[in-house]
Amino acid sequence: MLFDLTHGLAEKFALFNLFRYLTFRSGAACITALVLSFWLGPRVIRWLKSVQRGGQPIREDGPERHLIEKKGTPTMGGVLILAALSISTLLWADLSNGYVWAVLFCTLGYGAVGFADDYLKLSRRNTKGVSARGKLVVQIAIGLIAAIWIAHLLPPPLDDTLAVPIFKGVLLPLGLFFPFFALLVMLGSSNAVNLTDGLDGLATVPTIIVASVFALIAYLVGNRVFADYLQLNHVPGVGELAIFCAALIGAGMGFLWFNAPPAAVFMGDTGSLALGGALGAVAVAVKHEIVLLITGGLFVVETISVIVQVFWYKRTGRRVFLMAPLHHHFEKKGWAEPTIVIRFWIISMILAICGLATLKIR
User: Which of 125, 184, 257, 329 has the lowest tally of Cβ within 10 angstroms?
Assistant: First the structure.
């Protein structure tokens, strides 16, 4: 919005030239989202407490301490993240850019699915919200629309191919299957972050780390000079997503302020489904889907632990892990929550460095 409003003023007043720079607007978006989170946080938490009876329902088959330590904590804190993220993005991004709207659509769409799920859990006072089949159908519909939208925006030959990191110029043709592949990236990322969100701050910080990586990637890929120097696939206009990622970082840090142990609020499916969908959509737009698999490796491992647990239990009647997702396994082994969370953060940082290394290795 500010980019459009100040476009004509830049020629008359030098100060407004700042609004032309992507780096300035990205930094401003991050700070704006952070300040909005700090300001809205107490108000949102008071509202959530007033409308929720007893806070988020806790799984009875989960770690025993959760029934004591986390009982009564309000959920749906994802509305705080989405509000700060959306307002900041709309304020600082170029609103004529299609990538911004496509990614926002996916993010808010998945957030709406999560909101419905959280609402049903609260109204029924149990951990069963929207049916798995119903949730999946809506997620597929939203993801497919976003995938087709992004594919339409991408220039040939990037609109139907998969870019392979490290190997310069390698594009695997997917043809008509590309929107479905992009859907899988967004759907998988959304549900992976959702599965990881089980301890205070566990999903938030890795999301911030991955968003930081993709803010840089979006900036580099969207800039012809940097893209050519690093031998990356140049995607015109996608640099605006650096602003979205920066706003996501600010909103995430603001939420973490209130989610730090002992959490005053949980993000719920409202936040986790939206954040995962956002990362997936950005990865598709900047043509670094495989790098998302690397940088978001923590989310991948958490998801695989659930798949392995369910598969092996149905096949043999025995469990591979004491409890899935993986973070609950370590809880059952007696690890303290801060120990699990911080060690998982460290792993996420290492994976982010590995993902960034692919930008230079060619």
Answer: 125
> How is the chain split into domains, by residue range?
2-295
pLDDT per position as a tens digit, 54-93: 666 665 555 655 545 567 788 899 999 999 999 999 999 9
pLDDT in tens, 308-322: 999 999 999 999 999
What long-range pairs does 169-176 form, CB within 8 A, spacing at least 24? Answer: 169/231, 171/233
Can you give the length of the chain in residues?
362
DSSP 201: T
- Calpha distance 260→29 (Å, rounded): 23
Task: Please give the structure tokens belonging to residue 166.
Answer: 């490290």
Question: Can you say whether residue 97 is alpha, beta or left, with left for phi > 0 and alpha for psi between -120 and 50 degrees?
Answer: beta
pLDDT for residue 167: 85
The one-letter code for the residue type at 295 is T
The neighbouring-strand residues paired with 172 are 162
> What angle (nearest 5°) sits at the alpha carbon of residue 191, between those of residues 186 and 195?
150
* Rg, C-alpha atoms of the chain: 20
CA atoms of 83 and 37, how far apart (whole Å)? 8
Tell me, yes or no, if the pTM score tops 0.85: yes
300 and 145 Cβ atoms separated by less than 8 Å: no
pLDDT of 189 over the 60 cut: yes
Given the structure tokens 């930008």, which residue do they identify?
Answer: 359
* Non-local CB neighbours of 6 within 8 Å, separated by 6+ positions: 16, 19
Question: Any idea what the Cα angle at residue 292 is, between residues 294 and 346, rounded to 5°?
Answer: 50
Average pLDDT, the chain: 91
DSSP single-letter state for residue 194: H
13 CA to centre of own chain: 37
With beta carbons less than 8 A apart as the criterion, state whether 330 and 340 touch: yes
Q: Check if the beta carbon of residue 214 is closer than 8 Å to that of residue 283.
A: yes
C-alpha span between 244 and 5 (Å, rounded): 19
